Amino acid sequence: MITQNLEGYLEEIYQLSLEKTTFTPQEIGEHIESTPAMLFRILKRLHREGYIQYYRHGVIGLTKEGAELGKLIVKRNSILQEFLFIINSEGDPAEEAGRLESQLMPETVFAIERLVEFFKQDQDIMERFTRYCDNQQEKKEEQ
User: Looking at the Swiss-Prot or TrEMBL record, what is one Pfam family this protein matches (predicted)?
Assistant: First the structure.
């Protein structure tokens, strides 16, 4: 089972892998706020769990499993951010999505994805919902 912390690192590594297939720990470190020692421990763990592969000269690449999970993590984050945008969440969608990600079952994320797609397909309902939220906010401010 992958932890939320490991998911965060794997997500960043996956994003990096979209630009190039292999990279060094230093390149990863440029994208992740972490001490070199902590980064090394995380990379060792990701390797042990089969998500990254070490190559010659300290070069790293994602395994098939790592790429698949990284893609899933990025997609889940995107779905949750869209959902938070649709419901007019007042917080930072990226930060809130990061908090929600590890707390939700995959089935729940799939249900949220269907809801997001439904709203995106029907602009009228999206506008009605936005007006409803605006009206509720006005009522809240009047109290």
Answer: Fe_dep_repr_C
